[in-house]
Specification:
This is SWI/SNF and RSC complexes subunit ssr3. By secondary structure, the protein is an alpha+beta fold. Helices cover 47% and strands 19% of the residues. The chain contains 13 helices and 13 strands. The chain has a 4-stranded antiparallel sheet, with no helix packed on it. The chain has a 4-stranded antiparallel sheet with strand order 4-3-6-12, with no helix packed on it. A 3-stranded antiparallel sheet has the order 8-7-11. The protein is elongated, with a radius of gyration of 47 Å.
């Protein structure tokens, strides 16, 4: 084994010295030196020039030919080498580029934070206050003043012909939002979908009309009730009738009436449960009622002491306290009079009431803001790839510049250093050198064919010549 190692060491040293010896003789001749530059240096520079192009093509090929199921891709490196940043010649341009990178990072962070805020707002469902316009009107038929001058018609109880009667109609619609874009408009909701329950009370003589004086419409959950634009009530009679309409609106979120004990403190008469809790929390923060040591404890002032029922209250009990002071919201009450003895008014009566509902237009806008179009994402990705490619080209150009400057300052020393570097790389690949053949070539040394290669004899002769020369000089 030791003999094989000695032979391997001899062969590898002979090869290295042989290569350096040959190239040293070639450098002495100017013509051969030019040939050497043409054969070795020029291809090396050409390879450096082609590196950036090849890398850009490889990235484009990965984007175009990569499987669509793979979403991940390597991060694009847009940074400039520190050697260029520290170079006084490019200090101003480098600083401008670094400022742009910092600005891009801050902008990306801000956009991401705003996108998260919008997504959080979308999860809470934005609300708005709209105006519901309610219309009330009536018509009459078979009245005495309508049949004047015409032959009297016998009453028909099956068809209702010849019987004095009147019809009361209730309609409603949401007013459009002013200055709203056409693409933001949504199909209007039907009137019946905005009401939870409606009661119509008719003030008539119960002796003459014992039934049908109270009409109630409770909306069932689900799709059991069809969406309607209005309701019509038909009754017989020729005497004036007062009508009282009690309407419970479908607010979103559901509204509650705040009892006077809490309403006087918060100055809120009606709001949602979360709205009342938020108002109470704002009052606690403004008055500084949180305990300084234990922030979970709320101290009561003179106004909150009757509500809390003590001097302090745990923070998590605020919703329970608020619920004790909430009741069902007051209904909308409207009055109308039907007088069949005279002609109905030409213009219908109208009332405007406010109703809280989901803001679908704002929700759609926010959803569009969060989502990024495919074209924009592709355009940004293409720009990032171009910047990364230019940064890599700049890095390669710096390598070429350093290479050529070193070569121009001392060509002979540069080539000698370069050859030694190539020799070390060759030793690393072949497993020879300081490791004395104990790496990749261990298996190769076991074969006799390895020592019968054409260059072995010449390498051994050169090595022996160098050894004898050194011995003779000694």
């Amino acid at each position: 084994m030791n003999e094989n190692q000695d032979i391997s060491t001899c062969v590898s040293r002979a090869r290295r010295n042989h290569v350096i010896h040959i190239h040293s003789h070639q450098l002495r001749d100017v013509t051969q030196f030019g040939s050497f530059v043409t054969c070795f240096v020029t291809p090396f520079i050409s390879n450096l020039v082609a590196d950036a192009k090849l890398e850009g093509r490889d990235e484009d090929k990965e984007v175009m030919e990569g499987p669509k199921s793979i979403k991940k891709r390597k991060l694009l490196d847009k940074s400039i080498p520190n050697v260029i940043l520290q170079n006084p010649e490019f200090a101003q341009d480098s600083q401008m580029y670094q400022d742009l990178l910092n600005m891009e990072r801050k902008l990306d962070w801000t956009i991401t934070r705003k996108r998260m805020e919008v997504q959080d707002a979308l999860a809470r469902t934005p609300t708005t206050t709209r105006t519901l316009r309610i219309f009330m009107s009536h018509t009459v038929s078979g009245q005495q003043w309508q049949n004047m001058g015409e032959p009297q018609v016998a009453p028909n109880f099956e068809t209702g012909e010849g019987i004095p009667a009147w019809s009361f109609k209730i309609e409603g619609r949401l007013l459009e939002v002013p200055n709203q874009r056409h693409k933001d408009k949504t199909p209007p909701r039907k009137f019946s979908t905005l009401i939870k329950r409606m009661v119509v009370e008719l003030d008539r003589d119960t002796n003459v009309y014992p039934e049908g004086n109270i009409v109630e419409w409770p909306r069932a959950h689900g799709n059991h009730n069809p969406a309607l634009d209005g309701f019509t009530i038909r009754r017989t009679g020729d005497s004036p009738t007062k009508i009282r309409v009690v309407m419970y609106l479908e607010h979103f979120p559901e509204q509650y009436k705040v009892l006077p004990e809490l309403s006087n403190v918060l100055a809120v008469k009606e709001d949602s449960r979360m709205g009342v809790i938020q108002n109470l929390w704002n009052y606690i923060k403004v008055q500084g009622l949180q305990d300084k040591v234990d922030r979970r404890i709320i101290k009561a002032d003179d106004k909150l002491r009757p509500i809390f029922g003590g001097e302090t209250m745990p923070f998590h009990k605020i919703p329970d306290v608020v619920n004790r002071y909430l009741t069902a919201a007051d209904p909308i009450i409207l009055h109308y009079t039907v007088n069949p003895t005279i002609q109905p008014p030409e213009r219908t009566s109208a009332w405007d009431v406010e109703i809280k509902m989901e803001d679908t237009a704002l929700k759609n806008k926010m959803a569009v803001t969060v989502s990024t179009s495919k074209e924009s994402a592709q355009a940004l990705l293409k720009i990032d790839e171009e910047i990364a490619l230019l940064a890599q080209s700049l890095h390669n150009s710096h390598m070429k510049r350093t290479f050529l400057e070193s070569f121009a300052n001392d060509p002979a020393q540069f080539i000698q250093t370069w050859l030694e570097s190539q020799s070390r790389d060759l030793e690393s690949i072949l497993g020879s050198g300081p490791t004395e053949g104990m790496t990749l070539r261990q298996e190769e040394l076991k074969r006799s064919e390895f020592f019968q290669l054409p260059w072995v004899e010449e390498a051994v002769a050169i090595q022996e010549g160098v050894r004898l020369a050194a011995k003779g000089m000694a």
